[in-house]
Amino acid sequence: xxxxxxTRLGPYEIxxxxxxxxxGEVYRARDTRLGRTVAVKVLPAAFSxxxxxxxxFEQEARAVSLLNHPNVVTLYDIGSHExxxxxxxxxxxxxxxxxxxxxxxxxxxxxxxxxLQIAHGLAAAxxxxxxxxxxxxxxxxxxxxGLVKILDFGLAKLSRLADxxxxxxxxxxxxxxxxxxxxxxxxxxxxxxxxxxxxxxxDIFAFGAMLYEMLSGQRAFRxxxxxxxxxAILREDPPEFTDCGAVVPxxxxxxxxxxxxxxxxxxxxxxxxxxxALEALSGTTSSQQQADVSVSNEIAFRRIVFRRGFVPAARxxxxxxxxxxxxxxxxxxxxxxxxxxGSPESRVLGFxxxxxxxxxxxxxxxxxxxxxxxxxxxxxxxxxxxxxxxGAAREILDDVHFADWSPDGKQFAIVREAEGKVRxxxxxxxxxxESTGWISNxxxxxxxxxxxxxxxxxxxxxxxTVMLVDRDGRxxxxxxxxxxxxxxxxxxxxxxxxFTATKMGNSRSIRAVTMDGRERTVLVIPGIGNLHDVSRSxxxxxxxxxxxxxxxxxxxxxxxxxxxxxxxxxxxxxxxADGRWILFDETGEGGGDxxxxxxxxxxxSPAIHLGPGVAMSLSPDGRHVLSIAGDGKDMVxxxxxxxxxxxxxxxxxxxxxxxxxxxxxxxxxSATRGEDAVRAYVLDPADxxxxxxxxxxxxxxxxxxxxxxxxxxxxGGEAHCGIYPIEEGExxxxxxxxRWDRPAHWSGDGRTLYVAPRGKLPxxxxxxxxxxxxxxxxxxxxxxxxxGVLNVGxxxxxxxxxxxxxxxxxxxxxxxxxxxxx
Length: 822
Known about the structure:
This protein is mainly beta. The protein has three domains: 1-91, Phosphorylase Kinase, domain 1 (2-Layer Sandwich); 300-547 and 813-819, Neuraminidase; 548-812, Neuraminidase, CATH 2.120.10.30. 12% of the residues lie in helices and 42% in strands. A six-stranded antiparallel beta sheet has the order 1-2-3-4-6-5, with helices on one face. Strands 10, 31, 32, 33, 54 and 55 form a six-stranded antiparallel beta sheet that branches. It has a four-stranded antiparallel beta sheet with strand order 11-12-13-14, with no helix packed on it. The chain is globular and about 85 Å long.
């Protein structure tokens, strides 16, 4: 369709054509209502033939219109003209990135500045759940004043939906010469080439291909045909920059290679991480500042592990030269290793199933034997001591979360749970601090007169505060407001506490705080940083972690498990009775500062963003969702369709988890009130009444309500799993329940409770007959790729067990010794 000057599309009057391509024709137009110049893209009429698909596009277009980010083109309006959809956006003056690259490579500083702006734009879009899927130089615009704008969000998805044959080349730009037909194919991710579901990491791959091209002047995967190009994407790496005659700093080259990893798990896991990596090269915080790509030679990173898995803890030995750490490599059980920087090999010390806790100045290890997960971020084991030189471990105390040696190597500071609270003790038996949330990373001061640690007020969250408590129990907050925190050590001088934390997302950098609360940034790290130790000479031992929380499951009619992960931290919360909808939240980078609540149809449709917060429970009729807002003191009832959100007060309680009662009217809570231990409450939103119905310490976050609404099954604090009445009656134990059993599902008749042991992999789900105690195996649950998987759960099933879904946590670590940090 060609439109002449003066043609009206609603209130928009065509002024002149700007260009045409496979995605339609673009015109300069005038908005007659506001008197401004706009750009109108008229899409092919084929896009409107399927009303449902067009409706999905319109929904995504509305999402894009809400982005309001300087590096994403502003979408003003959508409409239809003579059967052809059109989109109206801001009018830009300048050139596309493709046009900028027609004359060869982009100068290094400009390339980094362009890349940083693109990364910021992608991060903003991904945070709203909007993925581009067709990022390429033709869809990136550089204005005359250097501002970069990403164009055409959502249009690539629409073109694929409108292609009745499902042709993956549907968005390839028509051309007059063979080479140009590879426009889109050159930027496809491997998963797109294979026809698999692609998430935001496909955009990161395309970003890497564009950055490579900006720096080298050549396409990363250009071949003579589309088939050859896609084969190269799957099997080959781009040529070295030196082969293209390009001089590129190693730090920039590493970023490009990281983006172009074939496996999505090995790429940057968020565009925000990517932006931080680019900013770290220049020290800038604004995409409008020029990038200085020189990297200081004073800071040296030496990687000391080279396998695929998770490193939960690492310490220097007393000399500060050798490193000891615990890790789960390639899906194997947790073990303890020793390593020397400069050597790629590590030595196994023979403590299978054990985690390292601390190393004393006198040369002993504190270990957690039989270590296992008991909740989100919570692990425990039997505290033991063993010599570094080798020998058997001597057991000291059961059920310890964390431990650290006193400077003289004679006493321990420990974290453990008792009476529904988590306690910091130093020495063992002397309680210095109690938390209704959880405590991590206790480190005794070099003088032995105080303990620094992280206090996390909400279970299931790593938000936290840096605390200091002396040996008389006088504690104070030194640094607070961190949305993600983990890893803590005393500085070499003993005058500061160093820790890794962030106030947005999960990208933790190393910070420092003095005893009087003065803070500073020590080292900015792209991605999730975790500080393990600081030697007496000032060397750092730290890891950079790639973290993912995903969802897999078997939906109705499926013969095998499918992946339902959405962004970077998809935590399953509930499933509808028919298995056609799942409820989950995103509280990582993609979820933004407040977290994000989603529902998603299990037919593979895109997730629907309901609002901010942490998801909890889907109402029995599927019309409402419970979520927790902010600091956990309020709940929000979100409509899944038409309607308004409603806030419900929990009378000052800190809510750890919540579920709808089967009657659809009341709400069951696991919460703490004031200094009380965690308990279960029933809340009536109609009148605000709140009533406790379990003893203190029961339940933890994991509880499930019976189909008739009379009971909950819950872990009983330090006891085995039990059944507790909501109204009248006495609690009763579950026959043959084991200590680590966590309830997953009641059978429809309420006679069988399905449980899975917390912290055991794979998760073995068994049904327990509540009358006889007979245990019947149902299924082992574990992702197909076990590397770095630390935990499986929550687990949710439909009443007839025909469908099931579960979340899993995967953490992959690279461990470094860092020299030269001031």
